[in-house]
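About this split. The held-out portion is used to measure sequence recovery: a designer receives only the structure tokens and must propose an amino acid at every position. Recovery is the fraction of positions where the proposal matches the reference. Here is one held-out target exactly as it appears in the evaluation file.
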């Protein structure tokens, strides 16, 4: 069967280009694996059939001839196992890729998301600013460690892998003002996002949203 991924039929403008099926689309583009998008909406995401595929009614979900699965990190690792474009073939190299995918999702992404919750905090909300400073410090600590690891390397390991794919999508959502303190990470993020496969994946997601935009 053709690989199928679940994706939203439409999303609000602020979310367009950031819905997490983008990660899976990018991985499939890097691996040169054709796929079809199964589009869901508010009604179908709660249907029993879809919940049997994605228990939480989210996207992405994935299926091929061998597996049916969900969660973007797990799916990207599954695709990486099929392609040297996303992971080396030796066991040690694959283990490093798994480590970086988990680091992106478990070590860096939660701190990015926590910080983003305070973007709209008002100056007179003292409790919010105090909490924001704590969250900012944790995020900067993570970004500093990542920047130190990268140094003058082009990618996290000796080649672009699924770990870079996941890390770049996480950094793409990081606050630009905060990221300005880490030029190494800005250059790394842009290097990853300049890959043609990312451009194709992004356009595929945006095209779907354009085609299914609500009537004005």
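Reference sequence for scoring:
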């Amino acid at each position: 069967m053709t690989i199928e991924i679940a994706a939203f039929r439409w999303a609000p403008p602020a979310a367009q280009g950031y819905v997490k099926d983008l990660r899976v689309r990018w991985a499939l583009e890097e691996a040169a694996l054709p796929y079809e998008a199964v589009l869901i909406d508010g009604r179908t995401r709660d249907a029993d059939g879809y919940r049997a595929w994605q228990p939480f009614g989210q996207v992405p979900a994935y299926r091929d001839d061998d597996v049916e699965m969900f969660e973007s990190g797990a799916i990207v690792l599954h695709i990486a196992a099929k392609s040297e474009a996303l992971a080396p073939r030796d066991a040690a190299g694959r283990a490093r890729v798994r480590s970086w995918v988990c680091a992106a999702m478990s070590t860096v992404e939660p701190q990015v998301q926590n910080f983003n919750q305070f973007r709209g905090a008002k100056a007179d909300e003292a409790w919010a600013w105090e909490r924001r400073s704590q969250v900012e410090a944790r995020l900067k600590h993570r970004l500093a460690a990542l920047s130190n690891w990268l140094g003058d390397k082009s990618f996290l390991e000796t080649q672009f892998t699924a770990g870079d794919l996941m890390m770049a999508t996480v950094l793409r959502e990081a606050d630009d003002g905060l990221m300005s303190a880490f030029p190494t990470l800005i250059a790394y993020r842009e290097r990853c996002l300049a890959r043609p496969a990312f451009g194709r994946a992004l356009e595929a997601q945006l095209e779907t949203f354009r085609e299914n935009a609500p009537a004005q």
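Annotator remark: The chain has a mean pLDDT of 95.
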